[in-house]
Design brief:
- The chain contains 11 helices and 15 strands.
- It is of the alpha+beta class.
- The protein folds into 2 domains: about 240 residues, BirA Bifunctional Protein, domain 2 (2-Layer Sandwich), CATH 3.30.930.10; about 80 residues, CO dehydrogenase flavoprotein, C-terminal domain (Enolase-like, domain 1, 2-Layer Sandwich).
- The protein has an 8-stranded mixed β-sheet with strand order 7-8-9-10-6-2-1-12, sandwiched between helices.
- The longest helix has 16 residues.
Length: about 325
């Protein structure tokens, strides 16, 4: 068993690193890590339907699609992530209980009554403190999970707060759960770095013989290649979303404007504006939106081209945002 030493906090790097380890190392391994504020979505999810898009944009929060299924999670300060890559058992490759066992054991040793509950959660008194997901590659299983230590829960909730009924698709939708930090359940106040160290020591004891592995220049070169070709691209993080229909609306000085979008492979297949006495530029915009990405920067450019946003320094206001996203 290898213990991967990873001090990177860039979410693109960390999610790419997981795929690299899964597909390029032959040994089993585990890794503890944390990222800058970011929203990490499941492989089969509709990114825009899972996030508070204006909030994420305004805060500069990165959105990253991982290769495993499951729901959306928020990474950031106070959120400890763990990754296990192990050989699977034929006929029982997916096994959440097996892979959460050492983390639950660690929490129990701290006096926290953690249990495996739901489909893939670790919960304490019914509150979710860890979400988990898995992905199979050949005979290997990638299991990764979050552990809320002392995370900013309001930021978490705001980043993944969504407006229902705006997106219609066949994607895997997240199940929203009541969450809590494990710091709420310990009499002993443990600093984040100290808890990370103690969990690492616990996992070394659990797995037995463990060797430290530090990424070399060759590893980093291949990981960065994966970032540049996949994980930093809008086409993967947003455009990979299943086809969907979006319905937006907003109030303008001449009445209510509605928009119906059909989006395929991230591109707008059709755009229909409706409302009483719409100025002609909305119909012209509808024509020009076809074939473009359903993307903030793309929409801004089109609105400026049609003089709907007169000032080049102006972006989508709160009033226009609900019309397009």
């Amino acid at each position: 068993m290898l213990r991967i030493i990873n001090s990177h906090t860039d979410p693109y790097f960390n999610i790419a690193l997981e795929e690299y380890l899964l597909k390029n190392l032959s040994e089993e391994c585990f890794m503890l890590w944390h990222s800058e504020p970011s929203v990490v979505i499941g492989k089969h999810q509709n990114a825009l339907a899972e996030i508070n898009y204006p909030y994420v944009l305004s805060k500069g929060i990165k959105v990253v699609r991982r290769i495993s299924g499951g729901g959306t999670v928020f990474h950031g300060p106070g959120n400890l992530n763990f990754t296990f890559i192990r050989k699977g058992v034929p006929g029982k490759m997916i096994d959440f209980r097996k892979h959460t066992e050492p983390v639950i054991g660690f929490l129990n040793d701290l006096g926290i009554p953690a249990r495996f509950e739901g489909k893939n959660d670790i919960r304490v008194n019914g509150l979710k403190v860890s979400g988990n997901a898995e992905h199979i590659f050949k005979n290997r299983v990638l299991h990764h999970g979050t552990l809320l230590v002392n995370a900013k829960l309001e930021t978490l909730k705001e980043a993944i707060r969504v407006r229902p009924d705006r997106y219609t698709d066949k994607s895997i939708q997240s199940v929203r759960s009541h969450v809590a930090n494990i710091s709420e359940f310990t009499a002993e106040k443990i600093a984040f770095d100290q808890l990370m160290l103690r969990l690492g020591n616990h996992l070394e004891s659990f797995f037995g013989k463990v060797e430290m592995y530090t990424l070399d220049d060759s590893d980093k070169e291949q990981i960065n290649k994966l970032i540049n070709e996949k994980y930093a691209l809008w086409e993967w993080n947003y455009g990979y979303s299943p086809d969907y229909i979006f319905q937006g609306e907003t109030e303008m000085e001449y009445g209510r404007v509605k928009l119906n979008l059909q989006v395929k492979n991230g591109r707008i297949a059709s755009a229909v504006f409706s409302g009483a006495d719409l100025p002609q530029y909305w119909h012209n915009l509808s024509r020009d939106m076809q074939g473009k990405y359903h993307q903030y920067e793309e929409i801004i450019k089109l609105l400026r081209n049609h003089k709907i946003l007169q000032n080049r320094d102006t972006d989508l206001t709160d009033g226009l945002f609900p019309l397009f996203f």
